[in-house]
Amino acid sequence: MAVPARNNLAVNHDESLIRLSKRMSLALRHAPERFGLAPDAAGWVPLARFLAALRITRADLDTVVAGNDKQRFAVDHGPDGAERIRANQGHSIPVDLELTPQAPPARLYHGTNTAALASIRATGLHRGRRHHVHLSTDTGTAHRVGARRGGPVVILTVDAAAMTNDGHVFYRSANGVWLTDTVPPQYLRTPEQPTSQERLNHQR
Question: What is the CATH number of domain 107-203?
Answer without folding.
Answer: 3.20.170.30
